[in-house]
Amino acid sequence: MYPIFNRNRLSIRPLASRQSKSDTSCMLDPEAVPPPISSESEAILDRLVKQMQQAKKQGAPIVVSYGAHLFKNGLAPVLIRLMEAGYVQHLTTNGAGTIHDWEMAFQGKTEEDVERYIKEGQFGIWQETGLYLNLAIILGSSQGLGYGTSIGKMIHEDGLELPEISDLRKSLQAEFNKNSVSEQLVAQANLLRTLEQFNLSSGKMVIEHPFKQFSIQEAAYRLKIPFSVCPGIGYDIIYSHPINNGAAIGDASVRDFLTFAHTVSQLEHGVFLSVGSAVMSPMTFEKAISMARNLALQEKRSLENYYIVVNDIQPGSWNWSEGEPPKDHPAYYLRFCKSFSRMGGEFQYLELDNTLLLRHLFHRLCQ
Question: Which phi-psi region, left, alpha or beta, contains residue 158 (left: φ > 0; alpha: ψ -120 to 50)?
Fold first, then answer.
């Protein structure tokens, strides 16, 4: 067994003491008319709009998978309006996407200066972000909730309802008496350990979110839209906090992945829109679609007719309808294109700033 870092020794500062680079002023007005785009982009966008309209009419899912820059680019109000209009049935993002979203809802600003705070030994080591997000996930896991839903619920309800330790012990004892060990029992035991270790009181822990109107997670919870999170252990700043719990993170995020895989299994005649996610989106989709097709083949039903659009600003010179480029071509190493081009259905790459994509989508679909 090797020595491990002791997070309890960290000097953890309050989030309010941190200088942040983005605030609510970056949030875009969905009603504002977007700038024009190229004719090539117009053609793909028109096709995407048509496919989304058809999917909605047929009751097929529209899945939006995105990287954290979508949020930092101020697109939350635009995406929320699309969600409210029924043009999104599932959302998926990485851990950073949830952190920026939550910090904006909580304090109206987010995005720290990485270079500055690394030098100070303070990057990511902030009390409220680490405490509240981790605790929401630990509590949510004990309730059978996924990662994204757990955070969305906390934002929506302005806090967390922590159980009485005595009640939790009784519940655990009753489960043990059944002579079976369920996932719920393990998650509740994990919550009990956390409450005792950090001396947390039962009852409502009030955590106000005065800027929740900018939270995609809150909107997803409110609208009952699945919000799946694919975190990377050690990738996100919440792993710096002593209350961080790998068992809860694993349980909640695997639940999210399986929820995502279920939606993908229903993707026939649906739309998958990947926005600014070079790794998470293609990697999770390829596993989910393989699992989904495994069942579809067993059940002798079709899972071939769906439309995939990948949006990024990386120049895309390769015509993916002609197949993969050779290994000596730079486009071969564009994971977000290469992977999706192998996934069946119809695939198109849209080289466009994501602010233009979503604003144009909103105006075509909702105006």
Answer: left
Residue 15 and residue 128 in contact, taking contact as beta carbons nearer than 8 Å: yes
Could you tell me the two tokens for 36?
């024009």
For residues 255 and 246, give the distance between their C-alpha atoms in angstroms, rounded to a whole number.
14
C-alpha 42/C-alpha 56 separation (Å) is 21
8-state DSSP, 86: T
Domain-wise residue ranges, the chain: 30-96+213-366
Percent helix, strand and coil across the chain, each rounded to 5?
Answer: 55, 15, 35
- C-alpha separations of 121 from 40, 87, 169, 266, 294 in Å: 47, 43, 39, 46, 47
Cα distance between residue 156 and residue 140, in whole Å: 14
DSSP per position, 337-353: HHHHHTSSSEEEEEES-
Q: Give mean pLDDT, residues 38-50.
A: 96
Three-class SS state of 72: helix
**Looking at the DSSP assignment, which residues form a beta bridge with residue 311?**
275, 350
* Residue 76, C-beta contacts closer than 8 angstroms, at least 6 positions apart: 27, 101, 104, 214, 215, 216
- CATH classification of 30-96+213-366 is 3.40.30.10, yes or no? no
- E-only strand ranges, 139-253: 159-162, 203-206, 227-230
| Torsion sign (Cα): 114, 116, 117, 120 | positive
- Token match 């009952």: residue? 224
Nearest CA among 250, 235, 52 for reference residue 146: 250
Q: Render pLDDT for 71-86 as a digit per residue (tens, 0 to 9).
A: 999 999 999 999 999 9
Tell me the backbone φ, ψ of residue 40, rounded to 5 degrees. -65, -45
pLDDT tens-digit readout, 93-138: 999 999 999 999 999 999 999 999 999 999 999 999 999 999 999 9
Q: Is the pLDDT of residue 323 over 90?
A: no
Q: Is the pTM of this model over 0.90?
A: yes
